[in-house]
Amino acid sequence: MKPIIQKIFPASQPFPVMVFSRQPVVHLFWGGGLLGLVIGFSLGFFLWMWQTGVLALSEHYFLLKLVHAHVQLFGFIGSFLLGFALQAGPNVLGGHPPPSKLLLKFLPILWLGIGLSILSDPVAALIGNILITIAFAGPGYLLLRVTLAGNPLLRIPRGLPLTGAFTWMAFAPWLPLEDSGTAVFFLWCGPITAAMVAAQQLINNVMQGAILQGATARLYMVSLSFAWLCTGWAAFMDNSFWRVSGWAWLATILILVFGTRFIPSVRTMGFVGINVTLFLGVVGLFVATLMMIIGGREVALDAVVHLLGAGVMTLLIIGVASRVAGFFSGQAVVPDRIVVYILLLWSLVALTRVATSLAWIGSDFVGWAVGLGGVLLIVWGARLALRLIPIGKKFSPPKP
C-alpha cells in the first residue's frame, strides 16, 4: 500500500520519446505566452484589488486596464493559441504544415505589435495594431490553405471554425477591448471558438470520443456562425441580443458535446488531468451561456469576461499545455495529479473573481484569491518554462 504522501503527490508519469519531423515552433510561442502571463496577470491582480478597494485606486487605472486587456488577450491567450494551432493545427486539420521558419516570423511581429499598440503615440499605436492583425491574419490564411488541402471530413467542424477564430482575432486590435461587451465578443468568437476545435481533437484522440461529421458537422457550423452573428450584434448594435447570443452558444456547445460523445468519454477517462480540464471548461461555458440567457440586456458582462478568460481559457491553457509540453519534452510539467489540484484551485480563484463582479462577495476574499492565484501561476509557469527549453533541441535538421 502506497504511503499517503505518494497518493497525494504521485511521481511524474513517463512520456514516450518525441521525434519531431520538422522544426518545432510551440516552445517559442508558449514562451511568449508565459511572458504574457507574468505581465497580464500581475496587472490583472492589481486591477482587481484596486477595483474592490483592497488597494487605493491608482491614477493610471484606466491606462493599465487597456494594457492588461492587450497583453492578456493577445500576449497570453493569443500566444498560447498560436503555438498550439501552428504546431498541432495541421494534424488537427488533416493537412501538411507550412514551413516552420515562416511560422516563427509571426511571434516577434505579435509582440512588437503589442508593445507599440499600448503607447500613447497614435502613429505607434496604429503600427502596433497593424502588426497584431498580421500576426493573426497570416496564420489564419496559412491554416485556411491547410484546411482546403487537408482532410475533407475535418474541413467543416474544425478547419473553418479555426480559421474563422483567427480572422476575428485579427480584427480585434481595432476594437475597444477595454469595453466588457467587446471583450465578450472577442473571447467567444476568437479564443473560445479555437479552443472548441482543440477540444474536438483531444476528445477524439485522447478520450476516444467521436468526430463531428455529416449533418452534425454542418449543423455545428451553422449554429456557430449564428452565434458569431448574434454576439457581434449584441456587442455593437443592440444589447438586448445578449440573451439570443447565449441561446446560440448553448446550442453550439450542446451539438459539440453530444456530437463528440463527450459525456461517455468523461465517464471512461476518470480523474485525470486532461479529462478534468475539458470537463471544467465545458461547465464554465455552460455557466457563461446561462448568465447571458438569464441576464439578457442586464447581463453582468464583466463577470462573463472573467469567467471566459480566467475560468475557461486560462484553465484550458494550464491543462492542455501541461499535457502537450510533457509529450513534446519527454518529461511531465508536473505530475498529472498535481495538474488536477492546480485546475481545481484555479477554478476557485476564477469563481472568486466572477463573484466580485456580481457583488456576491466583498473584498475580504480578494487578498487570499490573489495570493493563491499568484502561487499557482508561478509554480505552473516556472515548471512549464523548464519543459519548453529542451523542446527546440529535439529536432535535428536533415543532412544535405
SSE layout:
Blueprint: H1 4-8, H2 26-51, H3 61-93, H4 100-104, H5 106-117, H6 122-149, H7 155-171, H8 180-205, H9 214-236, H10 242-259, H11 262-269, H12 273-295, H13 301-329, H14 336-357, H15 366-388
Report on the structure:
The protein has helices at residues 4-8, 26-51, 61-93, 100-104, 106-117, 122-149, 155-171, 180-205, 214-236, 242-259, 262-269, 273-295, 301-329, 336-357, 366-388. 49% of the residues are buried. By secondary structure, it is mainly α. The termini are far apart. Helix 12 runs antiparallel to helix 13 (301-329). Helices cover 74% and strands 0% of the residues. The protein has 15 helices and no strands.
Fill in the keyword field for this structure.
400 residues; mainly alpha; globular
- Mean pLDDT figure: 90
| Count of individual helical segments | 15
- According to DSSP, the number of beta strands is 0
Radius of gyration: 20 Å
Shape: globular
What is the element string, with H for helices and E for strands?
Answer: HHHHHHHHHHHHHHH
Question: Are there runs of 5+ residues with pLDDT below 50, and where?
Answer: none
- Please summarize the sheet with the most strands: none
Structural class: mainly alpha
Oligomer: single chain
Helical amount among residues, as a percent range?
A: over 70%
Beta-strand residue percentage: under 5%
Distance between the termini: 55 Å
